[in-house]
Amino acid sequence: MEDIIAFDAGHEDLLHDLAYDFYGLRLMTCSSDQRLRLWAFDEAAGTWVPRDAWKAHDAPVLRVVWAHPEFGSIVASCSMDRTVRIWQEFEAVPRLPGYDHAALPATDAAAAAGPYGPSPWIERARLADARAPVHAIAFAPPHLGFQLASAAADGLVRIYHASHPAWTLMEEIEVVPVALRSQEARICLDWCPARHVPAMMFKTSGHDWNPMIYRISAQNRWKGYEVLAGHTDLVTDVAWAPNLGRTYHLIATACRDGHVRIYKLTPKPPPGHLFGGDEGPPHRGHRFVVTLVADLSDHAAEVWQVRWNVTGTILASAGDDGTVRNWKAASGGSGGWRCLSIINAEVASAQAAPSTGTGGAAPGLSGLPAGIEQSPRDAYGHEPTGPPAMTPFGAHGGGYGYGYH
Predict the structure, then answer these.
(1) Selection from 240, 261, 259 nearest residue 251 by Cα
(2) Could you mention a single GO BP entry for this protein (predicted)?
(3) Residue 353's pLDDT band (boundaries 50, 70, 90)?
(4) What does DSSP assign to residue 95?
(5) Which of 3, 169, 267, 396 is most buried, with most CB under 10 Å away?
(6) In terms of pLDDT, which residue wins out, 7 or 174?
(7) Quick one: which of 299, 351, 341, 297 has its CA closest to 320?
(8) Degrees (nearest 5) of the Cα angle 301, 303, 306?
(9) Which of 130-144, 184-198, 328-342 is predicted with the least confidence, judged by mean pLDDT?
(10) Taking the chain, what is the end-to-end CA distance rounded to the nearest angstrom?
(11) Which comes out higher in pLDDT, residue 151 or 283?
(12) Closest of 376, 398, 380, 396 to residue 60, by C-alpha
């Protein structure tokens, strides 16, 4: 397994999130310093180099995501300032010292100013419907069109559609009742990537530890269906596995109770319906049988992120023990999951790990990686959305990034 590459992320405050583009050659970071920073991997130098940086919001930036490249070079960011902003890259913008970008619209000109010269990243939309900080955003799979979901602390999930030249608010879904909303009420989002399940979506809220699956009902309304039971604390992340020819779905959750859980969703057609033939897999009106197939507590600490690989066969999890753990289904059809490897930023290497199945931290891997300790609050006095955590392809926290390449 390849080494971790450490680099100074250049942010002046807590680093909240990073996201790789579709090809894994560029990454975007966001921070409480209100900035987005773009990095590109330099193969000759073997490190990540800065390409752009600009002030993106008026408060800490909590999440950043890339759109599918078929829609162009586009990212979305969300913030404590209650907005979601859409950024588009225009390579035609010259990157020369002293470039006169007065010809650009005023909002574009402001976005174009950056420490690396005029930025080709232009703000294309500002979505300000939320009445509380926006904690999560997710682009829909490309086969569903150019859509974006956002989740705010006001208990609502909003779905936007890109209709030239603006973004239109299509749906507002109340997932946390007003009486149950609190500072802990955060919502995680992930879309179902499968083409044969129309607009399936997944959310979890802070008032109830157990996540619920939402999808469009036969009445063409978003409705909550199956519950993923077994959580004993706040769910911090969710990930729906890519479905490549499987007859079932896999969903992973990260939880503050120190567990990574993997659920299997098996289609269950309505009574009297024969599933098969040319009708395709089940969708509206069908239910799923939910089975907990793995309950992994090896982190022995709060777990903050889970991500699947492109085939949905390997799951990566990141926790407060300062490690990324890669999981794979055990061979032989036993139904269990084993720890394939452990990535520890402190030693900048990947270690083979024995399978424990249900728990037990590997020796010598406790504590956060050196240099990425988290302050209890950022410079604005806000509680962070999570501690420094490593994504399946890197780690982030404090002012350092860990690129995995």
Answers:
(1) 240
(2) cellular response to amino acid starvation
(3) very low
(4) -
(5) 396
(6) 174
(7) 299
(8) 150
(9) 184-198
(10) 10
(11) 151
(12) 380
User: Cα Rg for the chain, rounded, in angstroms?
Assistant: 21
CATH number of this structure's domain 4-404, picked from the four choices 2.130.10.10, 1.20.140.10, 2.30.30.240, 3.20.20.100: 2.130.10.10
Tell me how far apart the alpha carbons of residues 290 and 387 are, in angstroms, rounded to a whole number: 30
Rounded CA-CA distance 63/82 in Å is 12
Q: Determine if the pTM surpasses 0.90.
A: no
Tokens representing 82 are 């209650």
H/E/C letters for each residue in 235-267? EEEEEECCCCCCCCEEEEEEECCCCEEEEEEEE
Does 374 or 30 have the greater pLDDT score? 30
pLDDT exceeds 50 at position 337: yes
- CA-based max dimension of the chain: 71
CA-based nearest residue to 111, from 131, 133, 86? 86
Please name the residues in contact with 6: beta carbons below 8 A apart, sequence gap of 6 or more. Answer: 345, 348, 371, 400, 401, 402, 403
